[in-house]
């Protein structure tokens, strides 16, 4: 029976970590650290729940069912499960996350050197997606190209930044923004959505499993074990990165007061700490982080849609790369504006799906419990999304003042209530039945 060597397991963990750590993971914690002020670690705790805990749990949940998202979503039926999978793949693929890797790496790393012009962005994104296309054509080599080469480079660069954040703080901690002073945990929790890591985990599950299989491992038990180990290694790495970036942001008040985003905080800190070499260092770090994530997303999306569309993997890689190139040239601001409401809506049902997958032995029928709870979480997630998109005034007054609504968690109480009712109904109906068709 084929097994992985210790160095292969470590490379798999590095690859998983590298797939997760994109630009969003690097730019969101510093702004949270800056704005949370003395409440930084409570905000960090909330952030770590959605940006580390949920992704690791999702990797484990997927590993238990063989890596495929459709196996995880089987309780809600093929049609609903297919729709959820398509939305997740498109969101973390060509619509938002993949183009964002190019725009963020350009605006944070290169724009300060070349100028933030449409032509500069186009030329950069053209070269960027040519590299993404080339590496994505060979998904079986991901463990070598990412796990053994690109991931260690990214880890070294992040380690330098993390150590500097603690050893060379730029100053003291400033005042907290009102939202963080009032509810630091929930603010951190919601900001963790923006990393898209849980959605990314749903997408990357099959990439991780295929990387294990590419080494000749066929045993489902071993595949699950190796995927769980890889997820835990990635989780530890993510937590260390986030903690150091929270520290960087909280100590940057003197050099980045009033910054509107994490990119500005990072740039101010690096320029202050590393001088003229700072911009070059940051450009390399961000570009590496984004490139690896873009490759993983492109591979995962192409593999998924090759199964549901009459197109080859190679053709889909070309389509995804070209589409992502075009979307990336809309600019970072528009991409973030569009993505926040969508993520606010689709995160709750994904969280419910992953959480309840660990409790399936407790129900008579998974479909009776999982489907209604996911539906309710989606409906109330849409309400949060409408509020986040600026349409709060158009909602009925009762929907504008739901429990935890001010924290962006209006879906939580209704989902828990629905879960209790669904479990009672499931027990009353008795005999276990098949999942929805």
TrEMBL record:
Membrane topology according to the record: Multi-pass membrane protein
GN (gene name): brnQ
Segments passing through the bilayer: 9-28, 40-63, 75-97, 117-137, 149-170, 190-212, 224-245, 281-306, 313-332, 338-358, 370-389, 409-429
Molecular function via GO: L-isoleucine transmembrane transporter activity; L-leucine transmembrane transporter activity; L-valine transmembrane transporter activity
Family (UniProt): Belongs to the branched chain amino acid transporter family.
Single biological process term from Gene Ontology: L-leucine transport
Function noted in UniProt: Component of the transport system for branched-chain amino acids.
Any single Gene Ontology cellular-component annotation: plasma membrane
UniProt keyword list: Amino-acid transport, Cell membrane, Membrane, Transmembrane, Transmembrane helix, Transport
InterPro entries, per database record: Brnchd-chn_aa_trnsp_Livcs
Protein location: Cell inner membrane; Cell membrane
Protein name in the entry: Branched-chain amino acid transport system carrier protein
Main location group: membrane
